[in-house]
Amino acid sequence: MNLTVPFSTAPTAIQPYASFKLSVPFQMKKAVFYFMFFLSIAVAGYAFYAYFVLTPGSTVSPAMKTGYDAHNTRLLAHVFFAVGALITGPFQFMPSIRKHRSMHRTLGYAYFTSVFLSGAAGFALSFIAQGGLTSTLGFGSLAVLWIYSGYRALAAIRQKDYAAHETWVIRSFALTFAAVTLRIYLGVFSGLGFAIASFYPASSWLCWVPNILFVEWLLLPAKNRRAA
């Protein structure tokens, strides 16, 4: 599956939606995409099961559960809408969905609504995150950038700047995917025998900063070509 992502958000030539195609400074092979899709759905399913089937907080450390019990509403709102973003996000990159404008638009609005609501609840949760100020800043920054990238994506599509829209959607989903990378870090470090208090503050940054750097590394060639 080919994806092309211009880096600049300044509108150049505005393309009608029907003729717009994913412009391409890099290729994401189908196997990689579907692996990411599988991870997104798997983490969404796990989160829903852990927080809406089991007792909320029963799968986390006792210290974290205490904080979650005291702020149950914001926790469940964050998880519920994060599940929505994880499920709807990957469909935005499927050509079979993109060619159906109404379906793409409907899923897009569902995705961005999930991002804004989960991001707002996540920002509120960051103030009670285990790990003190480091975790608060890490998760708080993630929430702010997640909401901001969604806003920029919507602003671009309303201006019919499809190239900028695509760029910001990819950035947005890189931040959405932090839910997946966070679980990977938690599993790896816990499996190695580290106490959660020793690595959780670092994980609040590691779960999303490498994601964004990876995306920007893929977008930079397009920026450099346009600047030349």
Overview of the structural elements:
By secondary structure, the chain is mostly helical. It has a single domain (23-227), classed as Four Helix Bundle (Hemerythrin (Met), subunit A) (Up-down Bundle), CATH 1.20.120. The protein contains 10 helices and 2 strands; from the N terminus they run ββαααααααααα. It has helices at 30-53, 62-70, 72-88, 95-98, 101-126, 132-158, 162-176, 178-191, 196-206, 209-227; strands at 2-3, 26-27. It has a two-stranded antiparallel sheet with strand order 1-2. Helix 1 (30-53) packs antiparallel against helix 3. The longest helix has 27 residues, at 132-158. The chain starts with a strand and ends with a helix. Mean pLDDT is 82; it is low at 1-26.
Any idea what the radius of gyration is?
A: 18 Å
Q: What is the subunit organization of this protein?
A: single chain
Gross geometry: globular
How many domains is the backbone divided into? 1
Report the span from N to C terminus. 27 Å
Number of helices: 10
- Low-confidence region ranges: 1-26
Helix content: over 70%
Spatial arrangement of strands, main beta sheet: 1-2
Strand content: under 5%
Largest sheet: 2 strands, antiparallel
The CATH topology assignment is Four Helix Bundle (Hemerythrin (Met), subunit A)
Question: How do the SSEs run, as a string of H and E?
Answer: EEHHHHHHHHHH
Number of strands: 2
Tell me, rounded to a whole number, the average pLDDT. 82
Please identify the top-level CATH class: Mainly Alpha
Quickly give the CATH architecture: Up-down Bundle
Structural class: mainly alpha
